[in-house]
Amino acid sequence: MGLNIKDLRVSSPFFKNGGALADKYSMDKGNVAPPLVITGVPREAVELAVICHDPDAPLPNGYTHWVLYGVPPTVSELASDADKRFRPGPNSNGNYHYDGPQPPPGHGLHHYYFWVYALDTPVSGTPTRAEFLATYANHIVEQNRIIGTYEQ
């Protein structure tokens, strides 16, 4: 499938793209998922998936903090209770919920990519981030992200 980055937008009322995440969104100071606003979902989308990934983590494949499936394409806001309303998948800890930033002290600024994927087919089960990307890459109609930063 070709690259499509026309209309889908992801934003948050609580941080700007490239801006700092508040402590309450970090793992050890609240562990609350930041609310996200989603607009411009393509008509052909039947489901949205959300993945928060930190490529700066000192691990070979970075660190996945959040995986969320089963989000209807009509949803325009993901509140902090999204784990209860939709279908969480496993993060890098093996937990089925949002685990916020917790970079190693002194490791510097980390970037947290909150990806939203508009899909032309529903996601079956609760795949990991890697399984999702391998299985559903050809079903992504459009994708976009907002990036938050955090450091200890």
Automatic annotation (TrEMBL):
Cited Pfam families: PBP (PF01161)
Gene3D superfamilies found in the cross-reference section: PEBP-like
Domain of life: Bacteria
UniProt-listed InterPro entries: PEBP, PEBP-like_sf, YbhB_YbcL/LppC-like
Protein name in the entry: PBP family phospholipid-binding protein
Native organism: Methylovirgula ligni
Lineage: Bacteria, Pseudomonadati, Pseudomonadota, Alphaproteobacteria, Hyphomicrobiales
